[in-house]
Design goal:
Blueprint: H1 6-42, H2 44-52, H3 62-86, H4 93-106, H5 117-127, H6 134-162, H7 164-167, H8 171-194, H9 197-200, H10 203-208, H11 214-230, H12 232-260, H13 267-281, H14 292-303, H15 311-333
Helix pairs in contact: 1-14, 3-4, 3-6, 3-12, 3-15, 4-5, 4-15, 5-6, 6-8, 6-11, 6-12, 6-13, 12-13, 12-15, 13-14
Length: 352
């Protein structure tokens, strides 16, 4: 019996993995469409009124909403740039914005649970080639994710505190706000442990650093984490940016809601409900949280007595804006651009 060609076996595994990933993506889109269909059936009256023109729809706020959406994406790119600078990775702000925007929209097309971070990892690895900072650059993506989650949880907690008389009226909303507070404290504790010098200088961690092949990578990750300890203000600034980013998403939905369904839901209610729904949308169930976020907003609004608030109508326009901006950004930025994105003369924070 002859053994198979290893290259043929690898090619077969790659083909199988691609088919599995494609099937996974199709399944996630089916789940997203099923959630949208559920809301369409539930809010068929609001959709009929919109199509018939009986609701007095105004599209004047849509351009401002699109601008705020782009601003949120730009600030998210700035947040990652700040985290990269702390690692002395010489990547220009323009490149960070380009990679960040492309990876954000790529999350709608990729089956991975981490969304477009796979695209961001690939592009940043190519960008920093030759700097020997690939591990630090890749680790900054994970930290950016954590800071983004921290900002979202912090916005939920702050909004719940500011609107506590309203939150206190709903036991479910109180439970959700409490869960967000617990999650915030848990993630903050994890960050504190992750940047603890005692942890990284422990005998166990040093022993892990001596493992062949894997050890050097562990030590580079350790150094990357300690870099954030030395620049605590960088983490704080990134957290503030994250809160602003999620606040802008709330503003986008508020503007769209005013134009489509009027002032049915007060701003203080949206400041609590939308971040909670965005947190639900981070679950890797559908591409970009499509369907999950919409259902979450609808259900939470029902908890607090705002049923039939036209959530689907507002979110459909939000998704249309997202799709149009995705097409424009891919066309203008170019996913496969070969333009050099490394500023090799930038010494980083240490050299400033």
């Amino acid at each position: 019996m002859t053994t198979g060609d290893p290259r043929t076996a690898r090619s077969h595994r790659t083909s199988t993995d691609r088919r599995r990933a494609l099937g996974f993506l199709v399944l996630k889109w089916c789940l997203a469409l099923a959630a949208i269909a559920y809301l369409m059936h539930k809010e068929h009256g609001a959709l009929a009124n919109l199509l018939s023109g009986e609701t007095g729809v105004s599209w004047r706020r849509a351009p401002m909403a699109a601008f705020l959406f782009l601003l949120a994406l730009g600030l998210a790119g700035l947040r990652w740039y700040v985290l990269l600078r702390a690692q002395q990775v010489g990547l220009r702000l323009k490149s960070c914005l380009r990679i960040g925007v492309l990876s954000s929209f790529s999350s709608l097309l990729l089956p991975s649970a981490v969304g477009g971070d796979a695209v961001r990892a690939l592009m940043v690895t190519r960008a920093v080639r030759g700097q020997q900072r690939s591990v630090a650059a890749l680790w900054s993506i994970a930290i950016d994710r954590v800071v983004g989650l921290l900002g979202l949880l912090l916005l939920i907690v702050l909004s719940a505190i500011l609107a506590w008389p309203f939150v206190a009226e709903s036991s479910r909303l109180r439970s959700a706000a409490t869960a967000a507070l617990v999650g915030l404290l848990f993630v903050m504790l994890g960050v504190a442990v992750g940047i603890s010098r005692r942890v990284h200088r422990s005998d166990l961690f040093l022993a892990l650093g001596r493992i062949p092949k894997v050890g050097p990578v562990i030590l580079q990750i350790s150094e990357a984490m300690l870099a954030y300890r030395r620049r605590a203000l960088t983490l704080l600034g990134a957290l503030v940016i994250s809160v602003v980013v999620h606040g802008l998403y709330v503003s986008v939905l508020r503007l769209l809601g005013l134009g489509l369904v009027g002032d049915l839901v007060p701003t203080n209610v949206l400041m609590v409900v939308v971040p909670l729904a965005l947190a639900a949308g981070t679950l890797p169930l559908t591409p970009g949280g499509i369907g999950v976020t919409e259902v979450a907003i609808d259900e939470i609004l029902e908890w607090v007595g705002y049923a039939d608030s036209g959530v689907l109508v507002v979110m459909l326009q939000f998704r249309v804006i997202q799709a149009v901006l995705a097409v424009c950004c891919f066309a203008s930025l170019g996913l496969w651009s070969h333009e050099s994105s490394v500023d090799r003369g930038d010494p980083g924070p240490e050299g400033e």
